[in-house]
Structures are given as structure tokens and as C-alpha cells.
Amino acid sequence: METPIPLPRQRRCQAGMSLLEVMIAVLILAIGLLGVAALQATALKNSQGSLARSQAIMESYAILDSIRASIPVAAINDPTAKAAAIALYQMARTCAPPAAGATLPVNDQRRWIQTMQRTLGATSCGTIACNGTVCTVTVEWDESRATGGVQNFSISTVSQL
């Protein structure tokens, strides 16, 4: 029987990646993807807060436009009559829509509060304070869902009518 001829020993060459290297790469990739997901969630929260602020500003302009539209044509050039028409819209801070009334100001206020509560949440409140022909409209809502948001956030809009 012939003895086999021994093959010369060859140095082992690395032919690929080990399982440990693949696992480390996957771990680094997973951490990066979790960071992107957290960033996306934060951006979404801040976007929600920005949307609420935009809606609050639109609601304050909506009631100011309602006040402007309710001024009788005869009162436009009469400062006393104009101030009297505007004064009908005075409203202390309220979170509950006024009961339906027979007057345009009460119905406008009711619709305004209801719309705010639909768009900004059920805890939204509003105030209308007029001094002559200058009105300050304040809209309040819960901003706690946004990053660093506060529970009672408010925006005031001042306009001369």
C-alpha cells in the first residue's frame, strides 16, 4: 500500500465575514434606524403643534371677520355706532359654547367656540375683549402633545375694526 504524499500546509486566507462581524453591523444599523424613527416621531409632534397654532390664528381671524361683517353700513363712518355694534361681541373667557340666541353676535360666538373645539380639542376656550374699535381675541387650547408643549397655550390677536 502506498503512503499518501502529504500536501504542503497552506496559510488560511480570510474568505468572508464572520458571524460576529455581521451581527455587529446589524446592531449598528438597528440603532441608526431607531434614531431615525425617534426623529420622525418628534417631527410629527412638532408638526401637530404647528398645525394647532395655525388653526388658532385662523379661528381668531374668523371671529374678527364676523365682527367686521356685522357692522351696519350706516355705522361704518359713525365711530359711536360702530363701537356699539362691536361691543355686542364682547365675551369673557369661556370654554362652553353660548346657547343659541336670537342675535347674530351670540350665534357667531357659538359657532366660533364650537369650531375651535372641533379643530383644537374639547378644552379650547376663547375671549373677545373690545375697547372701542380695537378688539383682542384670545384662543386657548391644550398644547401638551407637542414636544415641550404646555397644557394651556394661548394666542392673542389684536385688530382695529
Provide structural commentary.
- 48% of the residues lie in helices and 17% in strands.
- The chain is rod-shaped and about 125 Å long.
- Strand 2 (125-131) and strand 3 form a beta hairpin.
- With 161 residues, it is an alpha+beta fold.
- The chain has a 4-stranded antiparallel β-sheet with strand order 1-2-3-4, covered by helices on one side.
- Helix 1 packs antiparallel against helix 3 (104-120).
- It is built from 3 helices and 4 strands.
- The protein has one domain.
- This is Type IV pilus modification protein PilV.
- Keywords: Membrane, Transmembrane, Transmembrane helix.
- The chain crosses the membrane at residues 19-39.
- Pfam families: N_methyl.
Mean pLDDT: 86
Query: Low-confidence parts lasting 5 or more residues at pLDDT below 50?
Result: none
Instruction: Report the span from N to C terminus.
Output: 116 Å
Helix/strand class: alpha+beta
Main sheet: strands, sense, barrel: 4 strands, antiparallel
Strand order of the largest sheet: 1-2-3-4
* Share of helical residues: 40-55%
Radius of gyration: 33 Å
Q: What does the overall shape look like?
A: rod-shaped
Indicate the proportion of strand residues: 15-25%
**Could you tell me the number of beta strands?**
4
**Tally of distinct domains:** 1
Strand and helix order: HHEHEEE
Total helices: the number is 3
Protein name: Type IV pilus modification protein PilV
Keywords: Membrane, Transmembrane, Transmembrane helix
Organism: Marilutibacter penaei
Transmembrane segments: 19-39
